[in-house]
Write a structure and sequence with these properties.
The complex is a heterotrimer of chains A (376), B (349) and C (545). By secondary structure, chain A is mainly α. Chain A is 74% helix and 0% strand. Residues 1-6, 16-20 and 372-376 of chain A have low confidence and may be disordered. In chain B, 52% of the residues are buried. Classes of the chains: A mainly alpha (376), B mainly alpha (349), C alpha/beta (545). At the A-B interface, helix 7, helix 12, helix 14 and helix 15 of A face helix 6, helix 12 and helix 15 of B.
Chain lengths: 376, 349, 545
């Protein structure tokens, strides 16, 4: 069978087989199953707390896609989750547990705001100056986030300090210090709430498509571009192969010539750079200034769930972020229109993560129910 | 206990350097800024340190048992949150505030933690869940459901003032200088913690159960071929770790008297610090308790600085334990972990 | 020993399958009382599975177990132990940070007032040791991790005896021992037999089996081929039964003579992770067209030396040269690119990413090498072609580049690794245990390839614990002991006995002069020819045949 069409066919089959690998189905199944089951548990809790679960479910839908406003809000959160999710996925894929995305986004956000505020007096007003400052802000956030993540990377690589714990500690520290600063030295005298100066006019991402002032399609575009760059980088470059191989099996990566220490630091830095970008987008696109970070949504933590749902695949992060964006968006709706405490949604996110951690559970469920029976 | 000599030598050197730096810093503070050291290191400070260290020490002893047996219980923080909210909810629901009710609340908190841990243990051991991800999930669930429950009960994520645990006082003896206050005018929960720590040490190193725990984490097959069910040992230690973390959370609440559900809740990273405490204590319950004391002391400094009017932001001072954790992990990072931690055990195939 | 006493153990028609693989197919086995019975077979022939069934670790699909004539069924090792059966696994079942005493009593601790009664345990263990002449009681308070492998093995045996074992199963007990330690172990086994114990001895080494056992059962592909008395058989006959065909023990002829030095070290010293010197002042030279064999008991610094050669470790002192150029501080990646290929010691952990398919594994180590990578960008179609070439040329089964590496058998994994590592005309190949855990077919294939590579001009460093492999392939053999090369021998001139003594840190002539020995046998003063004869009893004197 050496005629050309046959071989092409063979190659195509092989590609298809790899794309539609059973494990891909399985992962999607686990993601859908985890989310569905967690939502179901959430509704049971709602009922147990004496509220109407059907009404609550309806509010979840209305609050996420029920109106243009709700949908734009969903996209706004989706943008943040995509970036934060990619930040987590980069690290988890390489076997480094960066739980510090929340802290890195705080550091990135404040660096973004401060660099813009400091440079603003030297830059002419108007759209060009604004765009320039915006770029400076994004750049500063990337650098600051990267550096703040490089620290636990170095501590892990060269001193053996468990990165899970150091990054969690660095979250507390970032939030504490930035919180202190925005309530102290950085707080303008006329500010009635805890915040920095407002960013100058012209700094920001234009809304373009939707009328929501807090969402720009450019922000979403930026997030998707980052997904593209990271996805290509992971699968098509030597560095990406080094990183992913380290995540699968560090000993084999080392034997193949990967410098494990440098890879850990590079991974953490890359992850932190993307995390810093989350902070910048949050500050520029949504807030317009910086607030006490203990009041910022826990995007960095929810991103762990996003990434895990996506099996740490940057492309998979997009649909997972849409789901979480919708959940977060309906949370805003629930907070106003329902008596059910909104913290429930955080709890549901936690349950999603718990289920994602135990794929065996779903394999067993699948076997018991006879779904996907012939797969192992 | 033999340590890798090279690593331990490096550790000692770094530890010495850290100690030297701390002493130098203290000296600079005292001389340069006229800090009244004698007014910072008071008996009250020591007492507060003991109280602050107790929840950490309890969770650390629990986590240590789980890890010794081969299961990394990274959910300590979450179980502490559950312990605290359960104790608070119990106190609020029974509506009475005698010391007996505080004890009841603690017992209920431990019970509820045990039930929750049982589900968690099944996921980890039977369904071989990823221990790191599942542990994080427990934290997230705690961070969500504890404030949720608080909102349902009290309308806000903060409880009103609840009963708290009083100190006992032994007549006459409590008048003794220093010792009197520490030993005879103390929270019974500190004494309970001490008892737990000592019992944990004896069980781990002097009883057959301790042997089994150690073997389950180092070489589960050896234990299995000796006829002991490895997973039963692991179920026991994970349950114990959840119960101790829950107890730690309840003790935290019983000392504070109010549940706070804002931000990272009142537990605020103590479960994570507990993990570092047992690493620092080299998996020895007494070592872990001493490490907890260190972190408790760092936390207590905040109050001391306030009482002597040193103008450092309370919020910044509150970060000291977290900085301490990073320093400890950096200097002491390469602890020798039990070799089979994180690996599910199956006896056939 | 009455004539009609039932056998200690009788296995009848034992069948055990794992998925589609039949590990044991209706195997019969009969262990007479007070005898040493060897279970001989290749890796994967089902020896260990059969014994794990007997020990209660696996449950058989069919068949019955009789102990002392009684049919028994074991759900767990505990049941087996209760019936007086103990097993010493190839990988010792010891808890390394715990003391010898704690390990021996684990699971059967004497209790006094709720606490473990260490005094009672100590007395009982000492009594046991005195009865059989074990030295284990000297180390009761020592953590196992501080003991050498031979002592650990004796701890395992004492552990079984402490638990009341009448029948002892030893799984590949000699794999980690020096030839002299092996001798000591065999004497110990005879001692145990004399005291009324029955022993099963699993091995794939013909010499040992012939030397130690009364009777030998040969397993092949899960079937019991035959059971023979050791006195009535020969090495050749056993080998034929094991492999199913004639096996040649001939050393193949070679044409090319060694050329220029390619890889050299100069006074190389390495301090290990624990602060002890693991490699001391090693001078090594490998030439083109040469295979340099390194013999030694595991743990004598080979791992550290390999790491310094491959570039995974910077030595503390000394220099490494490639074709005359110093590369001491050059990392693994640059060395790879410069032509130092390596077959890793641990193929599962280092050689392959188990979760990757063979295409992705074909890139491992080549991820910066053209044509697979150009300026940091990967060319997956080139990698795929490479994977297909390796599979074809090295006869890897299944011949499917999308197969997951972890699903391949050990032999096929190893062939794939060898194919990948020599794919780019390296100048040097560091081959660490290239045939460990590999079936006979793959073993011969890999040996042939290594010899071909030598003819083509490669300099090969061959680290192996198999003396026959070293003697069949190497041009020179150096012996490594406690971090140093203590001697160099000619693979044709030398004997297993000489190599064995060197591996134990002694020279043949020194041995003859020694007054007393700390090891149980060979310590006696003995004239040289005698020593040779003693060891040759085991080695079967293959060179003479």
């Amino acid at each position: 069978m050496s005629d050309d069409p046959g071989r092409t066919r063979e190659a195509l089959d092989r590609v298809a087989a790899r794309l539609l690998d059973a494990s891909v189905y399985e992962r999607v199944g686990i993601a859908v199953g985890s989310t569905g089951l967690a939502l179901l548990i959430g509704l049971v809790v709602v009922a147990a707390a004496g509220h109407n679960p059907l009404l609550f479910a309806q509010q979840l839908v209305v609050g996420s896609v029920g109106s243009t406003g709700a949908f734009t809000r969903t996209l706004r959160f989706t943008t943040l989750f995509i970036l934060a999710g990619v930040a987590v996925a980069v690290a988890f894929r390489a076997g480094v547990f960066n739980i510090g995305v929340q802290g890195q986004l705080v550091v990135g956000g404040i660096a973004c705001v401060l660099s813009i505020l400091w440079l603003a007096p030297f830059v002419p007003n108007g759209p060009v100056g604004g765009a320039g400052l915006t770029l400076v802000g994004l750049f500063a956030a990337v650098v600051a986030g990267g550096l703040y993540a490089a620290l636990p990377g170095v501590l892990k690589a060269y001193y053996g300090a468990n990165e899970i714990i150091t990054t969690i500690m660095l979250n507390f520290i970032a939030i504490g210090i930035v919180g202190w600063a925005v309530d102290g030295p950085l707080r303008p005298d006329d500010a009635r709430s805890v915040r920095t100066e407002y960013l100058p006019e012209g700094v920001g991402l234009p809304s373009l498509v939707f009328s929501d002032p807090n969402f720009s399609i450019l922000g979403l575009g930026l997030a998707l571009a980052v997904v593209g760059v990271v996805a290509v980088g992971m699968t098509r470059t030597s560095f990406g192969y080094d990183m992913v191989t380290s995540g699968y099996q560090a000993s084999a990566a080392t034997f193949s010539g990967v410098d494990p220490q440098r890879t850990i630091v590079a991974t953490m830095t890359l992850s932190g750079m993307v995390a810093g970008l989350v902070g910048a987008v949050f500050a520029i696109m949504i807030q317009g200034y910086f607030i006490d970070p203990s009041g910022i949504g826990t995007y960095g933590f929810d991103a762990i769930a996003v990434s895990l749902l996506a099996a740490n695949n940057p492309v998979g992060v997009v649909p997972a972020s849409l789901l979480f964006g919708a959940l977060e968006s309906s949370g805003s709706h629930v907070q106003i229109h329902s008596d059910v405490p909104v913290q429930l949604i955080d709890g549901i996110v936690g349950i999603v993560v718990l289920f994602v951690a135990a794929p065996e559970l779903f394999r067993m469920l699948a076997k018991r129910t006879g779904l996907g029976g012939e797969k192992r | 206990m033999s340590l890798a000599t090279g690593a331990s030598r490096r550790r000692l050197r770094l530890g010495g350097l850290a100690l030297l730096a701390a002493v130098a810093l203290a000296a600079v503070l005292v001389v340069q800024f006229d800090v009244p050291l004698e007014r910072i290191l008071t008996v009250g400070f020591l007492n507060r340190t003991l109280m602050l260290a107790s929840p950490i020490a309890l969770a650390a002893v629990g986590g240590l048992y789980a890890e010794k047996s081969g299961v990394f219980n990274i959910g300590l923080e979450g179980f502490m949150i559950f312990g605290a909210i359960t104790a608070a909810a119990t106190l609020s629901l029974v509506g009475a505030s005698s010391q007996l009710h505080v004890w009841l609340a603690i017992v209920v908190a431990v019970g509820v933690s045990l039930v929750l841990t049982a589900g968690y243990a099944v996921l980890l051991i039977r369904y071989k869940a990823d221990q790191i991800v599942a542990g994080l999930a427990v934290w997230f669930i705690g961070l969500g459901f504890a404030p949720f429950l608080a909102s349902l009960l009290w309308g806000t994520v903060r409880s009103p003032g609840l009963a708290s645990m009083n100190r006992y006082s032994v007549p006459y003896l409590s008048e003794l200088p220093v010792v009197g206050s520490i030993l005879f005018n103390q929270s019974p929960l500190v004494v309970l913690t001490l008892a737990v720590v000592i019992a944990a040490w004896v069980v781990l190193y002097r009883t057959r159960y301790g042997y089994w725990v150690q073997a389950a984490g180092e070489n589960p097959t050896a234990l299995d071929t000796a006829g002991i069910d490895v997973n039963r040992v692991r179920y026991a230690t994970v349950l114990f770790s959840g119960a101790m973390a829950g107890l730690g959370g309840a003790v935290l609440l019983a000392h504070a008297g109010t549940f706070i559900g804002t931000g990272d809740t009142m537990v605020d990273g103590r479960g994570w610090i507990a993990i570092v405490a047992y690493l620092f204590g080299n998996y020895n319950p007494i070592g872990a308790a001493l490490a907890a004391l260190l972190f408790g002391g760092l936390e207590g400094l905040q109050v001391q600085f306030q009482t002597v009017d040193i103008a450092v932001s309370g919020r910044l001072m509150g970060l000291l334990p977290y900085v301490g954790v990073i320093v400890v992990l950096t200097v002491w990072g390469k602890t020798r972990m039990p070799s089979s931690v994180g690996e599910p055990y199956e006896s056939e195939e | 020993m009455t004539a009609d006493a039932p056998p200690a153990v009788r296995l009848e028609e034992i069948t055990k399958t794992f998925g589609d693989v039949v590990a044991n197919d209706a195997v019969d086995f009969r262990l007479e009382r007070e005898s040493i019975h060897a279970l001989l077979g290749e890796n994967g022939s089902g020896k260990t599975t059969l014994m794990n069934v007997l020990y209660g670790l696996y449950e058989q699909d069919a068949g019955t177990i009789h102990v002392d004539g009684e049919p028994r069924s074991f759900d767990s090792p505990q049941d087996a132990m209760a019936a007086g059966i103990g097993m010493i696994h190839q990988h010792f079942q010891l808890v390394e940070p715990m003391t010898v005493l704690q390990n021996v009593v684990l699971g059967h601790e004497p209790i006094d007032g709720g606490l473990v009664d260490e005094d009672a345990a100590r007395e009982e263990i000492e009594a046991l040791c005195n009865r059989y002449g074990f030295d284990v009681d000297d180390h009761l308070e020592t953590p196992v991790e501080e003991l050498d492998l031979g002592t650990r093995q004796r701890v395992e045996i004492v552990k079984s005896l402490y638990r009341g074992a009448d029948t002892l199963i030893l799984d590949e007990p000699t794999a980690v021992l020096t030839p002299q330690e092996v001798e000591g172990l065999l004497d110990l086994l005879e001692e145990l037999r004399a005291s009324g114990r029955s022993l099963i001895f699993i091995s794939h080494k013909l010499e040992e089996v012939l030397a130690a056992a009364d009777r030998i059962t040969v397993l092949r592909d899960g079937h019991a081929v035959d059971t023979v008395a050791a006195a009535d058989t020969s090495r050749q006959e056993l080998a034929r039964m094991m492999v199913g065909r004639e096996v040649s023990f001939e050393r193949p002829a070679r044409e090319a003579v060694p050329g220029e030095p390619v890889l050299e070290t100069e006074e190389l010293s390495i301090v290990g992770d624990r602060g002890l010197e693991r490699v001391s002042e090693i001078d090594l030279t490998v030439r083109a067209h040469e295979i340099l064999g390194i013999a030694g008991v595991q743990g004598n610094g080979q791992t550290e030396l390999i790491e310094a050669l491959t570039g995974h470790r910077v030595p503390d002192e000394g220099r490494v040269h490639l074709r005359g150029e110093e590369i001491t501080d050059v990392g693994r990646r640059q060395r790879l690119e410069a032509g130092i290929a390596a077959i890793p010691e641990d193929r599962n952990a280092e050689g392959l990413v188990q979760e990757y398919d063979l295409v992705k594994n074909a890139l491992l180590g080549n991820q910066t090498v053209p044509p697979y990578a150009n300026d940091g960008w990967l060319d997956w179609s080139a990698v795929e072609t490479h994977a297909e070439e390796i599979i074809e040329e090295f006869d890897v089964h299944p011949p499917d580049p999308t197969a997951r590496a972890g699903s391949l058998s050990g032999g096929n994994q190893q062939k794939f690794i060898v194919g990948r590592e020599i794919g780019h005309d390296p100048d040097v190949l560091i081959a660490a245990h290239p045939t460990r855990g590999v079936d006979v077919g793959s073993l011969e294939f890999i040996h042939d390839r290594l010899l071909e590579l030598r003819e083509e001009g490669l300099g090969i460093v061959l680290i192996s614990s198999k003396l026959d492999e070293l003697r069949a392939l190497a041009d020179r053999i150096v012996v490594m002991y406690e971090g140093a090369f203590i001697d160099e021998v000619d693979p044709i001139e030398t004997s297993d006995a000489e190599l064995g003594l060197l591996m134990a840190g002694q020279r043949l002539e020194e041995e003859a002069e020694r007054e007393t020995g700390d090891r149980s046998t060979l310590g006696e003063t003995r004239p040289e020819p005698d020593a040779e004869a003693t060891v040759d009893r085991r080695s079967g004197g293959d060179r003479e045949r």
